[in-house]
Design brief:
alpha+beta, Metallo-beta-lactamase, Chain A, 3 domains, seven-stranded mixed sheet, 25 strands
Length: about 525
């Protein structure tokens, strides 16, 4: 029996639930079966092999700020035996996913060598057995061979491995955490409770409800099947102190709150909209002001997802919010291409059954509110990816434009859009205009190596000054807010960005802000927290 097991308590506000897939931090490409297979084979195993071969290099790299975010394990060099054991476990537990990755490459090679313009039908007989029936072969209009997945079937097959999912719970005492995408979790880390639990578990919804609705530790322990040997640690996750109180907006206008990165809460007295949720913790000393989970309403009517990158779809946040969310709007995918998995299927698989898939210029209407998906261009390293949307939100005739990381590389696009939506009141624009190279995110999915100069020319970047000022000139906003810069300290574990005043994104956004202010346009680069009420 847990101490105080029958007393009603709350979750501590600094309790971190890290979702894992095969012991690695969960991000969207580890959910879809095809991208998960490629990342396990082409990223995880290669990083482990590199560490095992030369742990000293990894140890030196993670201590060098210039190498932050690189493919280096954040383990001391003495952890070789543990990594060897993890690699062996990975090879054993993921035998079929590794084989799936091999077969994906085989299908591509089969097409490149044999699909030369003649009828493609005979090639179906030579598709590897473990992927047969899950892919369609064809040509694009330049007669180059392509293949696509029947992704819904993959999720129903043995290739979708829900048993690889788990969550590590622990208390944090600071914002900054080590970069997580290159380092797996090792079992039995001190102070961390590792539970083998699928992300879709309804028990998690009830558990996270205890952030603001008290219940007993015994109730929580039974829901999550806590073992007797873990009870003492589990008990430390709770407090009798109520959380900070959410202050509901009751005015006749709208209230916007910036939570960090691309996360904006838009509230009227009747409806709430949250964009790209990435929420911080509190309950410890920190320097950067923030809104956090206690500043969210009990019900979020709409969550808007702009695109499929780990800083815009953070499962660590989404799983905590799932019980609050009525509907999620996601961009429609390209229909089975490896680089563009379906966001709707992904969210459905992890327990979200309220997903609306939206295309460009489609609209969702509520009383006094409309949400329209707009084209999102660039930021995806020139890959053919459709699952990306900007959003035009019209709230009681006040028009907000969320551009996210759209990089406006073809200004004529938004000339056409302007004809449809006209001037806007508020523009939110991402200006991380350096961006990581193509392979930083998409490397495991590439079928052939890419030249270094090509890799570094194809960036995951947002708008620069020229891109941004063109949008200002086009849509005539009264207010311009630069966001999605990855500056907040609670983003370092997924973003690995360190800016100085000499950094290109800072220089470019400063220039945009200065030019806007010269024109009497309210302009600011958002950081930490910001609240604006429009009556």
């Amino acid at each position: 029996m847990l101490p105080n097991g029958n007393k009603k308590v709350y979750l501590k506000p600094n309790l971190v639930p890290e979702p894992l897939v095969d012991n690695w931090y969960a991000w969207p490409h580890l959910i879809s079966p095809a991208t998960a297979a490629m990342n396990i084979k082409e990223r995880h195993l290669k990083i482990m092999d590199s560490y095992i071969e030369n742990p000293q290099i990894h140890s030196m790299a993670v201590s060098d700020p210039r190498m932050l975010g690189g493919p280096f394990m954040d383990f001391p060099k003495e952890s070789v035996n543990e990594v060897v054991a993890l690699k062996e476990k990975t090879m054993s537990d993921n035998r079929d996913l590794i084989a799936l990755a091999d077969s994906i490459k085989s299908v591509n090679q089969l097409l490149q060598e044999n699909a030369t313009g003649s009828c493609i039908e005979p090639l179906y007989e030579t598709v590897p057995e473990n992927i047969r029936g899950y892919v369609e072969l064809g040509y694009e209009l330049n007669h180059k061979p392509v293949f696509r997945f029947f992704e819904s079937l993959l999720y129903k097959s043995s290739h979708y491995k829900e048993d690889l999912q788990s969550i590590v719970f622990y208390l944090t005492e600071q914002d900054e955490r080590p970069f997580v995408l290159s380092t797996p979790r090792i079992e039995n880390e001190k102070g961390k409770l590792h539970l083998q639990i699928p992300f879709k578990s309804k028990a998690l919804d009830e558990f996270f409800r205890m952030q603001y609705e008290p219940n007993t530790i015994q109730y929580a322990a039974e829901m999550l099947n806590i073992k007797p040997e873990d009870e003492a640690l589990f008990n430390t996750f709770f407090t009798e102190t109520p959380p900070l109180q959410y202050q509901k907006y009751t005015g006749d206008g709208i209230r916007t709150r910036y939570f960090g990165h691309a996360c904006i809460l838009v509230e009227t007295k009747n409806l709430t909209i949250l964009t790209d949720p990435v929420i911080s913790y509190y309950g410890y000393k920190y320097e950067t002001n923030r809104f956090t989970y206690s500043d969210l309403p009990e019900t979020i009517d709409y969550v808007l997802i702009t695109h499929n990158h780990q800083d815009h779809i953070l499962f660590e946040t989404m799983i905590q919010l799932r019980h609050k969310i009525k509907k999620i709007i996601v961009p429609r995918s390209g229909g089975g291409s490896l680089q563009d998995p379906s966001l709707k299927m992904m969210f459905n698989a992890v327990g979200f059954h309220n997903v609306i898939e939206m295309d460009e210029l489609e609209t969702v209407n509520e009383t006094g509110v409309s949400i329209t998906g707009l084209p999102f261009i660039g930021e995806h390293a020139d890959l053919n990816i459709r699952s990306k949307l900007c959003y035009h939100v019209n709230v009681d005739e006040r028009k907000l434009l969320f551009f996210a990381d759209s990089c406006n590389v073809a200004p004529d696009l938004y000339r056409h859009v302007y004809k449809l939506i006209g001037d806007v009141d508020v523009m939110f624009l991402g200006m991380e205009c350096d961006g990581a190279p193509l392979t930083w995110l998409y490397g495991p999915l590439l079928m052939q190596p890419i030249k270094r100069e090509y890799d570094y020319s194809r960036r995951l970047k947002g708008s620069n000054y020229e891109n941004g000022i063109d949008l200002v000139n086009r849509f005539h906003p009264k207010e311009v807010f630069v966001y999605a810069m990855g500056q907040e300290p609670w983003l370092k574990h997924i973003m690995s960005l360190i800016y100085t005043e000499a950094s290109n994104p800072i220089i470019a956004s400063n220039k945009l802000i200065e030019e806007c202010r010269k024109r009497n346009i309210r302009a600011e680069r958002l950081y930490g927290e910001k609240e604006i009420v429009y009556e």
